[in-house]
Amino acid sequence: xxxxxxxxxxxxxxxxxxxxxxxxxxxxxxxxxxxxxxxxxxxxxxxxxxxxxxxxxxxxxxxxxxxxxxxxxxxxxxxxxxxxxxxxxxxxxxxxxxxxxxxxxxxxxxxxxxxxxxxxxxxxxxxxxxxxxxxxxxxxxxxxxxxxxxxxxxxxxxxxxxxxxxxxxxxxxxxxxxxxxxxxxxxxxxxxxxxxxxxxxxxxxxxxxxxxxxxxxxxxxxxxxxxxxxxxxxxxx
Amino acid sequence: xxxxxxxxxxxxxxxxxxxxxxxxxxxxxxxxxxxxxxxxxxxxxxxxxxxxxxxxxxxxxxxxxxxxxxxxxxxxxxxxxxxxxxxxxxxxxxxxxxxxxxxxxxxxxxxxxxxxxxxxxxxxxxxxxxxxxxxxxxxxxxxxxxxxxxxxxxxxxxxxxxxxxxxxxxxxxxxxxxxxxxxxxxxxxxxxxxxxxxxxxxxxxxxxxxxxxxxxxxxxxxxxxxxxxxxxxxxxxxxxxxxxxxxxxxxxxxxxxxxxxxxxxxxxxxxxxxxxxxxxxxxxxxxxxxxxxxxxxxxxxxxxxxxxxxxxxxxxxxxxxxxxxxxxxxxxxxxxxxxxxxxxxxxxxxxxxxxxxxxxxxxxxxxxxxxxxxxxxxxxxxxxxxxxxxxxxxxxxxxxxxxxxxxxxxxxxxxxxxxxxxxxxxxxxx
Lengths: 237, 430
Fold this sequence. Notes:
Chain A is an alpha/beta fold. Chain A has helices spanning 46-53, 76-86, 102-113, 117-130, 146-158, 176-191, 203-206; strands spanning 2-15, 18-31, 35-39, 61-66, 69-70, 87-90, 164-168, 195-200, 211-216, 219-225. By secondary structure, chain B is an alpha+beta fold. Chain B is built from 13 helices and ten strands. In chain B, a hairpin with a 2-residue loop joins β6 (197-200) and β7 (203-210). Residues 1-18 and 87-95 of chain B have low confidence and may be disordered. Classes of the chains: A alpha/beta, B alpha+beta. The A-B interface holds A 33, 51, 54, 56-57, 76-77, 80-81, 83-85, 89, 91, 95, 97, 99, 108-109, 111-117, 130, 156, 158, 160-161, 163, 189, 191-194 and B 1, 3-9, 11-12, 14-21, 24, 31-32, 35, 336-337, 339-350, 423-424, 427.
């Protein structure tokens, strides 16, 4: 089943009389169960592509189907709903809410979905245990290490059981050992069937993925399976 | 691989109609406010001060109105007062006119006594002045009132000890005096003043009665008055004047409240006829009903209430602008949080609600603090002014409602701005 289907996506930024074409007609299909790396140097348009896939931004041209549904022309409210239901974001800077503790952070997407309090708590604890932080639920983000913060962010992304996990430079703020741990976590989730899209400029990180899509100057330069895929060694730390 | 464990359990069926529980929204707002307690308090200071001022001033105002009303009523019931009016020049203000030419005479009082015999309960003309009074070496200034024996019933001045002077005392121009409670305390100490000598302007008077404690009503307190027969007063204490003796006022007690308007009219006609006056605007006297005085007190109260409303409006406006200002800062500071929440599925309406609730919680918090501050303020101001403040639930409710309205009104613009933020831009915001 195709989860993400992009067809002729263009994105043009306008600044006064200046126009900048960040994406120059991208067509891409990502199927359920895949783990894909969107690779490219900075300025290649990979972040713009990630924002369009994540429904944070709208394409100037082209169509986008997410989990079979045409999401190109949705209203602001509908897009918020689809983001909430279908997409789990993991950001480079973790983007946890500093005043909320770990459990409350994980609950945020479920709050906007209207999940009742008890179920919310229970599901948040489940995903926290899944990322190995069941015992840290009371902590504030400031009391966690970088790797732990990113695992909380992953738990939060998983809490709504999304169709895709969208990770934007998820290891950019982590040391290489912690980065490897986070990538192993993604691999585990992928092995369970979650579709994972990782945006990165690092070959080391892209190598954890089964398929690598290279972007340059707003176009797909190369797209194919990753023969030298790194496999996670052992379980989670 | 089998169907993923985490994926695709039923979720589309979930209704968003349920929405976010108000309690949760409140908690989020409360935390944001507690996150910066000093700033929150400073922000709401405008609302706090505005609400406190309204509550305190209303309570003190009502307290003092009640005080004046009580004083007026304690000075006699079913009371009509004839006083001098300025005539064509106008300016009749209050019950009794002390300054300016006195135009009501003792002869007027005597004529009324004869004419209205049986239709009135009592009549007492008064002439008064400040005199030095002495007992032994102790001395003080007091208001000395020359009057008739009916004064006791007409002005509600029955002595607690001894008795009021009599008609015989009046006829014989005896030097007898009835003294207020305060004078008895201050000049006679613990001794029984009845039968003792009191010197008024150097003349000795015998104390025949002491009034009960009338309370300290601030101005013209009956506790510091001395009553003597009017005949004695005119002979011994009044400034020498030629012609008909004049009085400050004539107090007349009617049989009951309902007959007062008729009596008032009859007295006015009688006085006018005596003066051969026909044009009411030329009258040099006025006949006033106690109800008139109460009405004028009430009018003052109403004016004050309007004025307080204005003060409240302005301070709440200023307070609201303060809240709007800090909410705008707060939205800017939390741009990233807004971006994160939007990425996680918050709709514009969710963000709007969150910030709106925060501003309402701020202003209502300020309102509640203001109410308590106002109560405390009313207590201490009341103690200072010797007034018992009266709790006014209406003003408290009004202040509360206004602070909610201020929160919604001034919180809307910042909240709408937050709701409109672009998620991509706000996630990038540092």
